[in-house]
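Session log. Operator J.P. requested a structure for one protein chain; no other inputs attached. Running the standard single-chain path with token output.
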Amino acid sequence: MSAVQPRPASPGEDNPIVCRLTETLFEVTVSKQNRLNFFSDSVQRLNQNREEAEVTLRNLKTWSPELADSFRIRDPDTLINNPFRLICESDLGHVPFDSENVFRQFIAVSYCWRHDDNDWPGDGSVPSAPWPFSRTFVDAVLSERGVHGGAPEGDANFRREGIWIDQMCIRQSDEVEKQQSIAMMDIIYDRCRKLLILLEDVTFTPEEVSVLEKYNNPWPKTIDEAIWKPEKADVPHLASLCAKVENSRWWSRSWCWHEIEVNKPWSDLRHQYHNHNATFVVKLASSVGNGSAYKLRYMTLQNARHASMSSANYIHGPDFLRKTIRWTIGDNKTSPYQDPPHRGAGTERSSLLGRFFVTSYTDCSIASDIVSISINLCGLALYFVGHFRNHDRVFFVMATLALACGEKRPLTWMDNDYTNDYTLLTLDERGGHGNSWLSRPTGGLDTGLPKFTVGGVRGLHRVSSHHIELDLLFFEAPVEKITDDQVKATYEIFPDNPIKSRKVEFQNQGFNPHMDDSEKDDKFCDSFRRKVLAGACNIGLAGIRRFWAVLEREVVEPSFNNARFVPFAGDDALRPAAKKMVDRLSTSDTCSIPALQDRNSDEEIMLSFLTFLTDPRALYMITPCPGIVRCNEGEGAILGHPALRFLSDYHDQSGYRLAIPTDLVDSPSNVPRVWILQPLEEGEKAKRLDAHGDNNGVSSCNDIGVSDSTGARWRLVGKCLLLGEPSLVLSETDGNMKSRFLALRKRQWVQA
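Structure written below.
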């Protein structure tokens, strides 16, 4: 799609332009002043975040100029000058403007487009031209104008309330207008008085509606009145109607999800039940005729779903995640609406990729639209003008965009050829696995990714789908393997065989979803736990202090100490083992140990560490520990079990090197930060480039920043965790670019 140029304001835009569609239906292109009244505040908020957009675009232009050409800054003047039309229905023979010839407010409609074959929704209904949906839903939309109280009838004065419907209000043949409208779609749905959601393929039974209205109380006077407590016989009806909504076509569509998300249904404004709460419109079954429309508020649907999920009868089917992921929009931890109003370099903001991953669970016929949707959901002052239908490319575009903004998480992902999940968006444009340095997250799409700092990625130089050029900190010392004798020594601390998992206590005593096969899991994980324990003994007391500080900050506090679980605390039953371990390490630890400041005693730290080791929630981090890597003369860090790209890569690991991207040095330890690399021979590198047809204009080996050496080019074999390391920062100002244990090498070429 061609680049979008700002559209100049029309000389006649001081007045609205009215076009009659039928005797009672009008299309109104509102005046520029009317657009300013509607959108100036929202557009100005985008302008306040222009620095964030400029940082992102500047990085994209440096790393991948071709990709950068697909992005533009969302310019306020461009958005305000874009035509904005509303539909008005009036039996007066004209548009009932007020004295200023403006619309004061409008309602927006979210619905699924019909195709020419009219196969969907399959009930024999046809659109009521010029409306894009059937007459039952047209009447429901019109009846919502002016509904601002408990009375079902609208105020007659609200006939002038406009209606925005994308298919009717955007010139579908005008590519420039369409692209600019997409760029401001989030603003339109944010500024409407109310969002109406039409589910033409959903029909409620009278019994379901009766149960719904039995418990729905729009005006509760107490918290107790607000909580739905359905009778057992009523729960199946609530579960049934919720399932119908979640099985609708609308629920699965990316653009539809975008429309309710940017409407901010969890906000204080949208909780005004009659005035501003999003409203679903479905059909009500009838024994006579085609039935009528039935409306329910978003808050009502939320309450019904919660009441039905809380019962034992709620069925978690195979599509449970795909259908329920939409409800994460109310999570304050990941919502972009908690971000600072002014964002620029150094500002902390919510994850871009978390929003992208939620969108990835929905369907979108044009893959590139997912990029536009994700940008809008994140509040970036950018818009996307690329156009492609390859869903594989979406993953690369969004990962690179996130890196350019400062989100480092794509550098930590590592998949392999035996844990493929083909339900996820992948980067595999040539039909074969392993063509890219960029991997999918091994554990699946994560919608709860943490916040990041804008402009925080500084060690990248070039990025393409098949290679990346970046600064790496290499570990020069060989890996020290955990020996059988070191593992055997752990039986002095934990004589039980296997080490038994502790019981996790829940705040809700009646809720305990943890595994019934704990004994089986303990046997399987015993060797993993003992190797980690042996590794901890190997790095000494100082290393364990660092190790536990990281675990407490990055794992225990965010994941264990939440509303579901009883707060994590050391298990006193393990105190004898903690004392024994402290005594042993105190006699063997000869390195200089810094004084503790405002921290627990070594015994308490050890008790907490051993308790963590036996916690079943920690098993994802308790992987087989292959050894210790030394970071300086007296201190080392524990390496997690490597996740290698191919099974064959495990056979001979003698030629591998370990390095950590400089951008990941200060990143959390609970994600794979260490890259496992294999030197690329020149012949192999040339062969790979020829196969991919992609050199992306990258300079020759002599220009990469390392002397004329094949060591500057690497194959990415895998990644692993690094736990409990001391400071890895090397000073560049005094020339200390290399030590006996660490070496900083810039502009290293890495590919699959």
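Operator note: The chain is about 35% helix and 15% strand.
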